[in-house]
Amino acid sequence: MCGIFGWVLAGSRRQDYNTLVSITDLMAHRGPDGSGYWLGDSANMRHQVGLGHRRLSIIDIQGGTQPMWSADQKIVIVFNGEIYNFIELRKELADLGHQFRTSSDTEVMIEAYRAWGPGAVARFRGMFAFLLWDMNEQRLLVGRDQFGKKPLFISEMLGAWIFSSEIEPIMQFPGIDRSLDHDAFQDYLLNRYVPGPSTLFQGVKKLSAGCYALWQDGRFSVTRYYVPPFATTTPDVTDFDDAVEMFRETLNESVRIRMRSDAPFGAFLSGGLDSSAIVSIMARQASDKVRTFSVGFRESKYSELGFAQMIAQRFDTDHHEVVVEPDMFMEQWPTAVVRRGAPVSEPADIPILILSKLASRTVKMVLTGEGSDELMGGYPKHRAERWIELYHRIMPSTLHDSVIGPAVRALPYTMRRAKIVGMAAGERDLANRMRVWFGGVTTEDRNALLGQLISPEPREPYPFSIRTGSPVRRTLFFDQTSWLPDNLLERGDRMMMAGSIEGRMPYMDTKLAALVSRFPDSFLVGNIKGKLILRAAMDKTIPKDILLRKKVGFRIPVDEWFRGPYRDFLRDMLTSNASQISRICNSAVISELMNTHLEGRANNEKVLWSLVNLELFLRTFKPTGIRDIRTKAA
User: Fold this and answer.
1) Which end of the chain is flanked by fewer CB atoms within 10 Å, N or C?
2) Contacts of residue 126, Cβ cutoff 8 Å, sequence gap at least 6
3) Would you give the DSSP letter of residue 218?
4) Is the pLDDT of residue 551 over 70?
5) What's the average model confidence in pLDDT over 41-53?
6) Using CA atoms, how far apart are residues 348 and 490, in angstroms rounded to an integer?
7) How many CA atoms lie within 13 A of 499 on its CB side?
8) Is 596 exposed, middle or buried (0-12, 13-18, 19+ CB in 10 A)?
9) Taking Cα atoms as reference points, which of 130, 123, 165 lies closest to residue 29?
10) 77 φ/ψ angles, rounded to the nearest 5 degrees
11) Model's pTM, two decimal places?
């Protein structure tokens, strides 16, 4: 796990070695164990190529330094992540005659490229982002893993292509365009994150998950090499017991290969089903006690520490906990914004950062439960989507808009989930409905905040491109192509790497995803609970209290903290003379949202959280072009 930075520069854009070093070293938190840099030229001397690397040493601690060169000095690579099937690939390549000098997965990537060219990327089972310069072909291969667990940002200017694991280093490149992307700003309000390939900066894009790109002789092209199998696979497993056994076997393997490490490792344990299942498998396969780490709060209704302790005792782990206090949360909040290079989309980001810093004192890597819900239908929305189409057929939209909708909006905020379901049921457009489930504000609220009517159409249609199959499968495809890479997995990478620790995610495995896509919806989503296949696989392993408990999610007491210790901070961010967001958005609307929350008449924590984090982002990164939004909103 590392941080990578690189560039291809023409003519006057060339930079010196010290610039490459200083910018790369801004990601020392991603790689505190070592660093490496290379600066060279293309064969025709028209372009300068730079590669920088910060290393967190986990595999082949002595031999895996980067940039790494092939034996013939014709290929050089910097790589962030892990290739979990590198042992199997190494054997396959050795049988083809390839020789190896190290035990590193990085060298396996080089030899895989030598054997199979850019198509080698599809063979990697892991999480990765890399930059590979081929001297013979005079081209740069840029790749990102199938689900987008590892980030790669790209900035293209006239005569310059810049690549980085995080946005902050790109912002330090001389002459970079810092203009705010106004459309992305509006997208953030709706989604609570910026859907890829956009970022909040016009000049910075994400390489989309499941894609690789080639730079050659001044031309840059992107190829999608992976599509989540829910888009292409017809369910063909008909026996539930057979499905459970296949799932159990594949999940066990997914955990096993993610336990390959030359450094100490452990697991994040929330007390929910997903992480408990991972810990149970690790405990069976580990030779020593599994180290587990949990985070909680003094507010008991938000804390799952008791359930985490139950699992830790059940599997006899070496357990560690941290209780997050409001002042501790506030102390880490600005760091989270910097590391994300964007507003912090959810309050849960910050406890993960705090927990990562705790864990990094004793381990270099942890296994986590991210992606289970998005793979197997664990959210209430997955169950609701099964009947929403029927609701649309029998309920005229005019009747919903005139009767049902107003009744839903009038529900007290204590009935939060019922309100969300009711609002989603009335939304007939798939893209807008996905926003309702987890978004920050409605389209109407966004228009009120910005003082203008804006089209709700998504700029990136790919996550909504599946028009066949069941509603559940369409929703899971959206989760796997937007919600995961641009929000949850982005959070996991940035917050854990900010704490100098690697996070491995067994549910986000291509082999496991291919298997689950073969299961019918009824094996995944029930009428009362989701992830039926996982529950059945863990039936004799996980305590019933964990197995059958209602999904609560990772909630933070932000609504209470906004009314209590963060009251003055909230007012400063949103209504003071220093507030930029109050000049971009309608200040009267912001004041109403804030006051009704502070007075306890509504729970507006979602939209207030989004606005506060936008304000923190604007103050931290100081993008240009904010005045243009103010003019439009006037």
Assistant:
1) C
2) 81, 82, 83, 84, 85, 86, 105, 145
3) T
4) no
5) 96
6) 13
7) 27
8) middle
9) 165
10) -140, 145
11) 0.95
